[in-house]
Amino acid sequence: MIKRNFNDLLAFVTVAREGSFTRAAARLGVTQSALSQTVSGLERQLDIRLLTRTTRSVSPTAAGERLLKTIGHRFDEIEAELDALTELRDKPAGTVRITCGDHVLRHTLLPRLAPLMHDYPDINLEFDVNYGFRDIVADRFDAGVRLGDTIDKDMIAVPIGPPLRMAAVATPAYFEAHGRPATPADLTGHRCINLRFPTHGGLYAWEFDHQGREQTVRVDGQLVFNTSPPIVDAALHGLGIAFLPEQEFAPHLEAGRLERVLDGWCEPFPGYYLYYPSRRQPSPAFSLVLNALRV
Length: 295
Prior knowledge:
Elements: H1 6-18, H2 21-28, H3 32-46, E1 51-53, E2 58-60, H4 62-84, E3 94-100, H5 102-119, E4 123-129, E5 143-147, E6 155-159, E7 166-170, H6 172-178, E8 193-195, E9 206-210, E10 213-217, E11 223-225, H7 229-236, E12 242-245, H8 250-255, E13 259-261, E14 272-277, H9 284-293
Parallel strand pairs: 3-4, 3-5, 8-11
Antiparallel strand pairs: 1-2, 5-14, 6-14, 7-12, 7-13, 9-10
Helix pairs in contact: 1-2, 1-3, 1-4, 2-3, 5-9
């Protein structure tokens, strides 16, 4: 009977999930060449190819898909059980991985989790700043953060913030030169600063709501960004009208550097939720993170 090396199997699972020897090597803390040799050795031992390698990507073969489906969740269960053992320690420990957008990270997650990190120095947090809809199970995140109406029904969703409002803003000089839009439709005649979502590659269509009357406008302008901080900076430079959650502009509105328009068309909507798989037992570290964020 051949004695199996479970490190080889873990190496395969990590490469298959990451779709890259480079990313998998970084996650496992080994060199790329050593990892490649490990997986090749497993393939020789099994006498079957598990991965298809190209210059751009790595993907499982049919046999690799079968093996990944069979053993991948076993390693997840082992990892979860090892995390649960921290209950026996004086203080919980472990890494909690969360995927989220940069707005909620800066304004909600970091401020609320900073005291937790001071109190529990053995808890590590890893944030993946991403506007796309990541598959938190396949990508092995403990949780994700999204707006409440975009979360799959099979997830546990916990509110972590109040309702949000959008704000359309620009500098006083911009409005003096170009006028102020009176309705959302007027935005088509203005220079607007666009946001591109990586999920589908399209530009975000600005959504407005006034007393139950919804209106969506596709705007145009010279600038497109895929994160919110440069949108704020561009608005401050007078390069057009920006449209983001009002919290992004709060200090600049208060100081008069930016002015708001279409205020009556920006109704509150459900805010951010932390979501995680219902079938996975939360680790003590994750439970502490959840309690710190829950409202």
